[in-house]
From TrEMBL:
This is 9509_t:CDS:1. Keywords: Signal. Gene3D superfamilies: Glycosidases. Residues 69-88 are annotated as: Disordered. It comes from Ambispora leptoticha.
Length: 580
């Protein structure tokens, strides 16, 4: 659950006094993540001239339009549409069917353009049994790739094929991918893969499902790092252009301006300023309006022309109240893709067991994990809410646990290659669930764990920080900005650098404590204190990087480093030993 934070400490104090004096306890039972609970307090909004200290998470939305024909049907990836819609379940521990049966395929890039003559799919085979062959056909039955043997060694394998026969159009092709196991003549699996081959000429942002990267409309491959930003703050004070410059100066390369957008002319000014500034991109949110399809499509058509538009953002934690019913999100997704197939759509989930139910309502699947300062003692997997669904309240364990459940469920439906982003906690809210903010060390360790577990963006809730700015310097250190004109120092090395492009900065390694590791027989061992992070690079690095294959705590680099071959990140829990 997300709340808006007040940037002014005096306003925060006033707001809290008002809360304690005027806000009654709420006794009505509600439901979040499929679990019944009683809210601690009903939050309230304050004067629109002040950014609220927190926003009411139970603010009623527009009436959601339910589509019984889709919300109660199950369509596997081998169906005619290639869209998976699981039946709505009210159980707090919903069942995800094994639709994929160990096989999955998705288009590597979304979208392709008419200038692309070759495309590829990302093939996933769980526990391959013997040789694998792949055949790809167009929706009209014409062959695009003859039956071809594929060497399946890794979790994800790229299978290239020509796409020049696919005439450019604005709606997706539904390609039939047949997967053969062993010497069998009948396919072990047939999967419908959506592939866009669009006419050129529009602002285009591509996502890469093989490496998880994102390529902006200006052609930059970035690892997005940045905050949800209070839109009242962004448009006020020194003005939107100056405030964007401040955010870029902090090292952020993406922001999500948190609505509502009461004046769309300010949104236009924001995009114009971001285009002029360069190197900072916008995730535009429809979180309070995504059920108003006419309004959403109108704004999509108004703002899709800007280079700085990175993604559309439909819904924020819809699974909290809607649980497994994703019909409204699917309707919004389809409307946005019809109006603008050139930009990806994103949303964020809050619950542990909903990834499979929302996977086909978005191109980028985010989750937010807020484990700091919560009391989990009265929560169970089926009852009550504590601010972090099924969490332990651990900076080191809750991101891996959430990721494990997500990946298990996504693999069951064949969507394990979907792009995934992480939203981290950078706030407190004592009147509800979060008694304190993360410490600098806790935020640092959650960031690195997220990178280790494959998330291709680190965002956080929210900016401005309230009431403590101590995290700001730490997040700036962790930020990566690919804009060559902005060479702020950073201390991050990304696990999969093939997906993150060129980075500018003064260093490529980060170790909190100048630790030493030993590599022997393919194993890495050493000693890190709790919450300490070590990043070690190995392999054939570019000549301008000085490194040592057995110890690396202060490795130096020139101001521009592109694609080191390997980066290994370890989060300290004491003595460790790990295979490379």
């Amino acid at each position: 659950m997300k709340f808006q934070n007040q940037p002014l400490i005096c306003a925060v104090t006033t707001a809290l006094l008002l809360l304690s004096a005027t806000t009654p306890e709420v006794t009505a039972q509600k439901s979040w993540c499929g679990k019944p609970y009683v809210p601690r307090k009903q939050a309230r909004d304050f004067s629109p001239n002040l950014s609220p200290y927190k926003r009411n998470p139970f603010l009623p939305r527009d009436l959601l339009e339910r589509d019984a024909t889709t919300s109660n049907a199950t369509t596997s990836a081998s169906g005619n549409s290639g869209t998976i819609v699981l039946p709505v379940q009210n159980n707090p521990l919903p069942t995800v069917p094994d639709l994929a049966k160990g096989y999955a395929a998705m288009a590597r890039f979304q979208p392709y353009l008419d200038s692309d003559s070759n495309g590829s799919i990302v093939l996933n085979v769980v526990n391959p049994n013997g040789p694998i062959s792949v055949q790809i056909a167009n929706e009209d039955g014409s062959e695009l790739l003859a039956k071809t043997s594929v060497n399946v060694k890794d979790m994800a394998v790229e299978v290239p094929f020509p796409i020049s026969k696919l005439a450019p159009r604005t709606n997706a092709y539904n390609l039939k991918v047949s997967i053969f196991s062993g010497s069998g003549s009948s396919p072990a699996s047939q999967i419908i893969v959506k592939l866009y081959r669009l006419p050129s000429g529009q602002k285009t942002v591509k996502i890469d499902r093989l490496y998880g990267g994102i390529i902006t409309a200006t052609g930059d491959t970035i690892f997005p790092v940045g905050p949800y930003v209070d839109f009242g703050w962004l448009g006020g004070g020194a003005g939107v252009a100056a405030n964007l410059k401040t955010l870029k100066g902090l090292g952020y390369n993406v922001i999500n301006p948190d609505p509502t957008y009461t004046d769309l002319s300010v949104v236009d000014q924001m995009f114009q300023a971001a285009d002029q500034l360069g190197g900072i991109y916008i995730q535009l949110s429809f979180r309070y309006s995504f059920t108003n399809i006419q309004q959403v499509v109108s704004q999509v058509n108004q703002f899709k022309k800007y280079n700085s538009l990175l993604t559309w953002y439909t819904a924020d934690e819809p699974d909290g109240e809607q649980w497994t019913d994703s019909s409204a999100e699917l309707k919004a997704y389809n409307a946005i893709k019809a109006a603008d197939p050139y930009h990806p759509v994103a949303l964020v989930l809050n619950c542990e067991h909903t990834a499979a139910f929302y996977a086909d309502t978005t191109d980028i699947l985010s989750t937010d994990v807020y484990p700091i300062g919560v009391d989990m003692s009265h929560c169970t997997p089926t009852n009550d809410v504590c601010g972090c669904d099924n969490c332990l309240g651990s900076a080191t364990l809750d991101v891996p646990q959430r990721t494990g459940v997500f990946m298990k469920d996504l693999t069951l439906i064949g969507r394990q290659s979907i792009n995934q982003w992480m939203v981290l906690q950078a706030f407190s809210d004592p009147p509800t669930w979060w008694s304190r903010m993360p410490t600098v060390q806790e935020f640092r360790v959650m960031s690195y764990i997220s990178i280790i577990y494959g998330y291709k963006s680190i965002m956080f809730w929210k900016y401005p920080f309230t009431p403590d700015n101590s995290l700001q310097a730490q997040i700036t250190q962790l930020s990566v900005n690919g804009d060559a004109s902005n060479k702020d120092s950073f201390n991050v090395a990304v696990k999969d650098l093939q997906g993150s492009g060129s980075m500018q900065g003064n260093g490529t390694t980060d170790s909190a404590g100048k630790s030493t590791v030993t590599m022997q027989n393919g194993a890495l061992s050493g000693n890190l204190n709790a919450y300490e992070v070590g990043v070690y690079t190995f392999g054939n690095l570019p000549a301008n990087i000085a490194t040592n294959s057995t110890t690396n705590s202060t490795s130096s680099a020139s101001s521009s480093v592109s694609h080191p071959f390997a980066a290994y990140i370890i989060v300290g829990l004491g003595i460790f030993s790990s295979l490379l």
